Amino acid sequence: MERAAQGADGGGGSNSSSRSSSRATSAGSSPSCSLAGRGVSSRSAVAGLGGGGSRSSPGSVAASPSGGGGRRREPALEGVLSKYTNLLQGWQNRYFVLDFEAGVLQYFVNEQSKHQKPRGALSLSGAIVSLSDEAPHMLVVYSANGEMYKLRAADAKEKQFWVTQLRACSKYHMETSSKTTPSSRSRSLTLLPHGTPNPASPCSQRHLGAGAPGVVTVTHHKSPAAARRAKSQYPGQLHEVREMMNQVEGQQKNLVHAIESLPGSGPLTALDQDLLLLKATSAATLSCLGECLHLLQQSVHRAGQPGHKPGASENILGWHGPESHSTEQLRNGTLGSLPAASANVTWAILPNSAEDEQSPQPEPEVVLPTFILEKRSLLEMYADFMAHPDLLLAITAGATPEERVICFVEYYLTAFHEGRKGALAKKPYNPIIGETFHCSWEVPKDRVKPKRTAPHSPASHEHPMAEDPSKSYKLRFVAEQVSHHPPISCFYCECKEKRLCVNTHIWTKSKFMGMSVGVSMIGEGVLRLLEHGEEYVFTLPSAYARSILTIPWVELGGKVSISCAKTGYSATVIFHTKPFYGGKVHRVTAEVKHNPTNTIVCKAHGEWNGTLEFTYNNGETRVIDTTTLPVYPKKIRPLEKQGPMESRNLWQEVTRYLRLGDIDAATEQKRLLEEKQRVEERKRENLHTPWRPKYFIQEGDGWVYFNPLWKAH
């Protein structure tokens, strides 16, 4: 969550070049916040960073002190990098200057403005520079004060060059400062809002004027008078929160002191990369908590003023709202989105009001602002599981039970990437009860072959279409929202020619997890191969929206199962979530087993949105690249022929305003739909009339299609 620097940064900037023209310049002897006053004695172009020229070696940038005893003359590194500004503006090109001598990374709107005041400055003493898989050629700089820059280079060579120089600068200033660090008795932990330069840096002090954001300084030996003043500033529950934060901050300070007290050499030193990253991330977490407390304090202060009417942002934060707004409205985000100047802290869990305590209520839902909606319903997103219908229909063509279960696992692992395209996490519309979605696919018969026996053919991104309907299979799909509390969606698809059908019911359960939002997909699906009399029961992984305060991205996680009782084959699929430190994203592993003989017949590993490698028990291997698989387009009736409760027709006004960029109008249309749903639900409660779905009926704990293929045959 960027404040001063990135708030001002989001508006414009130079996008004239998407590549960096970084260069190293030998700096003068006197430290300065800008290169404008520096005496530049030499300048060398950096090769491979956007055009041509020759690049000085990385070692020349991080030059060691001169042997003649003179003052250290350090070069500066300059160039264009892409910087993540905020959720709305995304990545923007900015001109960066690494001042090695001052230990500061500054950035400007463009090269022409580098002699003006920088848009932001990051102290590199003790900073951590790490690589990231969230975006191509991405690196992240974590300052010791909790500030963070997410940057992208033009290519891998340029990224590595910046990483090398930034790490060298961080290490040098860390080693220098450790020699002159004051005793722990006189130290205090300073938590700065994002976008505020570190006041400890000489380069940053002149930029901290009267208009700078407030600095939270944690003091651990308060006088009784100071404690009373602090208590008066944080009334009620907020004072307890502040006291708890003080305890945590004290523990974090002890952690930092313990790390800095480690010896300079040996198996574990104060410069260990994991320990430095632990210091930076713990400080960043406390900084984020400080920001949240500050927002809550402002909300309580405004709510206590006479005649104050809380605004939309206060309701989103879940603090005291007007009685006329029900908790149900707050949970569904119908009070509008945040104003443009508001912070991005809108992923909140809302407590029940006093009225709600009188009767049991569903668990709180995660409130999400309208501008991150995906312009389609969750029901339509489920249809993307069938984006490769040729692989689904090929399951029944397997010659043996072993081949069929392996074909199903191959289809299953390739079924998720099409529904989650794009680096930025987007949330589909929550379906309205009674909402339906219909579509179909036509698959040429000559393309329906098991993957293991199919001949090799060149990969193609073209949409495969059947010219003659008689030479194609037709796969039909219908989905319906059968319940609002809890939210349960059902979908069913069938191919009569192949005597294959899938029936699935899913209960989506959201959970707020600090910096993430988790969605558990509770329920199961059943694939029926009527020609072979086989039923494959499968479950679905959980989905997680990560980094919700910076660049939201989606990953899948959890252990799922696939089993066929008739044949004795089963499969275990594990979607691995990214570890906190290092590791790859979107990893998946799978194992297919014949239970009666306890034999593993197939193993798979890779990325569910990338390359998957399958190894069979006969020693053969096969690689499937999900990015090159042909995607079959959905066939959907035009809007004028759709019923009022069909997804695209139902949400068409919300979608239209989102495409126009009119967030307020889209939010109002969304509110009207959800309010209509609540009114109809109250009517049914008063009349004691249960909701009756159109296409699905409840059987035990599950839901099945009213006229499934296995009953028709």
From TrEMBL:
Say where the protein is mainly found.
cytoplasm
Point to the regions of Basic and acidic residues compositional bias: 459-469
Could you tell me which InterPro entries the record lists for this protein?
OSBP_sf, Oxysterol-bd, Oxysterol-bd_CS, PH-like_dom_sf, PH_8, PH_domain
Which residue ranges does the record assign to the PH domain?
A: 74-171
Localization recorded for this chain is: Cytoplasm
- Top-rank taxon: Eukaryota
Q: Which UniProt keywords apply?
A: Cytoplasm, Lipid transport, Lipid-binding, Phosphoprotein, Transport
- Segments for region (Disordered): 1-74, 304-335, 448-469
Q: Where is the composition biased (Low complexity)?
A: 15-47, 55-65
Q: Which SMART domains match?
A: PH (SM00233)
Which PROSITE patterns does the entry mention? Answer: OSBP, PH_DOMAIN
Family that this chain belongs to: Belongs to the OSBP family.
This protein is called Oxysterol-binding protein
Record gene name: OSBPL10
